[in-house]
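Subject: mismatched residue count in predicted assembly?

I count 284 residues in my input, but I want to confirm that the predicted structure covers every chain. Input:
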Amino acid sequence: MDQTLTKDARNLVDGVVSYLRKDSKTQAVAPKVQELFNKVTVAARKEKTANVVSSVALTQNEKQSITQILTKSIGHPVELVCSVDPDTLGGFRIQIADWIIDMTLASQLTLMAEQITQ
Amino acid sequence: MEKLGIEPKLLLAQIINFSIIVVVLGKLLYKPILTMLEKRKKEIEEGLKLTEKMRIEDEKFQQKRQKMLETTRKEAQGIIEEARKQAKEEEKDIIAQAHTEAEHIIEKGKADIVVYKEEMEKDMRMGAVDLAVAMSKRLISKALSGDDKHTIISKNLKELESVRVS
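Triage response: the counts match. Full output below for your records.
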């Protein structure tokens, strides 16, 4: 029964994806990283801690990469506070003060749903 | 005359008596009766004249009454005709108004149906999308292994690195 459900679910997801492709909405679905970076807030530039939520525990290399990118973007070193949330499905979300870079699959799905229903 | 039994003296006396009676009666009785008769005749004539006058007046009154009745009847007929005409016009107006209102109701009904249909479609679409998202989440969470998730993170990091910081 679970297999049948999975098959139906795949069909449904395929339908959603094909709908998005047909309406040329896929370009707008993924958040534009450039725009996110351009929105670095004053509060974020003053903050020294970054909360990172991911679907799996980050490796040391991943943490290091994130730290480097953030240091470069806000102008000073930041300390990462990492946590795992399976509901994010994949990717990660960074929050520094009120500045948020959400690159999770869950948020992309939510965006897709919003654009379809608009 | 005596042989006939007629006394000349007696006859003369009777003639005189008769003449006296005629004169007296003519003076005392005949004239008043004639006067009275004349008066009575005049009264009757006046009565007849009055009756004739009244008859003429009555005829005039009847004619006038008839004329007034006809005028009144014509006026009443006119009023009735006017009322009928007005009633027909009002009937036409009411029917036209009813048609207009019915058209408005139909148009509103059609518009409501369109809105209702659109709302229903939107609800169905939203429901389908919610379901699709929920199923997608469930599928993705089951389908992606730990390595897959790290691959996604690497890809995201590459995206971030490629961005120019302003």
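Chain A is about 55% helix and 20% strand. Marking this ticket as 'not a bug'.
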